[in-house]
Write a structure and sequence with these properties.
Blueprint lengths: L2 H16 L8 H8 L4 H10 L4 H4 L2 H4 L7 H7 L12 H10 L10 E5 L6 E6 L4 E2 L8 E4 L9 E4 L5 E8 L8 E15 L5 E8 L2 E2 L3 E4 L7 E5 L2 E5 L9 E2 L5 E9 L6 E8 L6 E12 L4
Antiparallel strand pairs: 1-2, 2-16, 3-6, 4-5, 5-16, 6-15, 7-14, 7-16, 8-9, 8-10, 8-15, 11-12, 13-14
C-alpha cells in the first residue's frame, strides 16, 4: 500500500471510530428521539433500521401521538372497539387515524386523528349547527342519504336569508396548531340561486373575528378570450375567489377560514352567510369539518 492509500485508509478508519452507534442507546433515549419526528417517518425508519423495532413498537412512543383524552373519546363513541381490544398503543393510533370514530354526541360529531402529525380533527354534523329557520319545514328539510356519515343532512328548500354557524371548544382540538374550517356540502340537481353568488364566511375566537372570506358554492365562469401569439388564453376577472373542491367521499368542500389554537378555554365559532334578497334552493349540508391546514 502506497503512502496516499494508507492515509485514506487511516482516515476512513478514524471516521468510522468516531461515528456514534445509535443502536447502543437506551430504548428510552431512542423513543425520545423518534417522538420528535412524525408517524410516517417512524415507519420509514423502521423499514431501513431493524434495530429500531423495539422502540418503534413500544407503547411509550405511541402514547405521545395519542391525545391526552383518547380514553374519554373512545368511551363516548357508539360503535368503535373497546380499548381492551387493541394489543398496543400503536394499534390504537393507527385505528383512530385510519377510520372515523362514530358520533360522539347524539350523532352530531365525528372525531379522528390526522395521520401525519396526530392532530385532532372534528366534523360537526348539520344537526350540530345553528341554522336560521333550520327547524321550519317551509325553508329546510332533513333526511338521510347513504353517502353521509351522519344519520341526517340539512337540505335548503327556499330562503333569501342563508345563515348558519357551528361552534367548538378549544380543549377539543390540538393546541399550537393552524386549523382550517371547511363546509362539506352538495348542490341538488334542482338547485338555484348560487350561480356566481358570493357566500361570506368568518371565524370568531372569543368574539374576535378573523377576516371575512368570500367564496362561490357554484361557479359558471364567463371567460374572456385573449389571443397571445398562437396561444388562446382564458381568464376570469374574479379568479381569486375560491370555488368548491371535490372530495374523495363524493362531497364538495370550500374553505371557510383558518385559525391558530392557543388556549383550551377558547370558543371557536364558524359562520356562513349569504344575505342577498334573491331566493336560494338545493344546498345540501353535511356539516363543517375542522382539520389542520395541509401546508403547515
Amino acid at each position: 500500500m502506497d503512502g496516499k492509500s494508507k492515509k485514506v485508509a487511516e482516515s476512513s478508519s478514524s471516521q468510522s471510530d468516531t461515528v456514534p452507534d445509535f443502536s447502543t442507546l437506551p430504548e428510552a433515549c431512542i423513543v425520545y428521539i423518534l417522538a420528535l419526528t412524525c408517524p410516517p417517518d417512524i415507519c420509514r425508519m423502521r423499514a431501513v433500521a431493524r434495530w429500531l423495532m423495539p422502540a418503534v413498537e413500544s407503547d411509550a412512543l405511541w402514547i405521545r401521538f395519542l391525545p391526552d383524552d383518547y380514553q374519554q373519546i373512545f368511551a363516548r363513541s357508539a360503535d368503535s372497539p373497546s380499548l381492551r381490544d387493541f394489543a398496543s398503543k400503536k394499534d390504537i393510533f393507527l385505528s383512530v387515524s385510519a377510520i372515523l370514530l362514530s358520533s360522539l354526541t347524539r350523532a352530531k360529531r365525528m372525531f379522528w386523528l390526522e395521520k401525519r402529525r396526530g392532530k385532532k380533527c372534528y366534523m360537526l354534523a348539520a344537526r350540530e349547527l345553528t341554522i336560521i329557520w333550520g327547524d321550519t319545514p317551509r325553508y329546510w328539510e332533513w333526511f338521510s342519504v347513504p353517502e353521509s356519515r351522519f344519520s341526517e343532512i340539512a337540505c335548503l328548500k327556499d330562503v333569501c336569508w342563508l345563515q348558519f354557524n357551528g361552534m367548538i371548544n378549544g380543549h377539543l382540538i390540538s393546541l399550537e396548531t393552524n386549523y382550517a374550517a371547511y363546509l362539506v356540502f352538495k348542490l341538488s340537481e334542482n338547485s338555484y340561486g348560487f350561480d356566481n353568488v358570493e357566500v361570506k364566511s368568518s371565524i370568531k375566537i372569543e368574539g374576535d373575528q378573523t377576516a371575512i372570506r368570500k367564496s362561490y358554492l357554484k361557479r359558471r365562469v364567463m371567460n374572456r378570450r385573449v389571443l397571445l401569439g398562437r396561444r388562446e388564453l382564458h381568464y376570469s376577472s374574479q379568479e381569486h375567489i375560491p370555488c368548491p373542491t371535490p372530495r374523495i367521499d363524493g362531497w364538495l368542500e370550500i374553505e371557510l377560514g383558518e385559525f391558530f389554537t392557543t388556549k383550551e378555554e377558547d370558543h371557536i365559532e364558524v359562520e356562513v352567510t349569504q344575505l342577498g334578497s334573491h331566493w336560494k334552493r338545493g344546498l345540501m349540508v353535511e356539516g363543517i369539518e375542522i382539520r389542520p391546514k395541509d401546508n403547515v
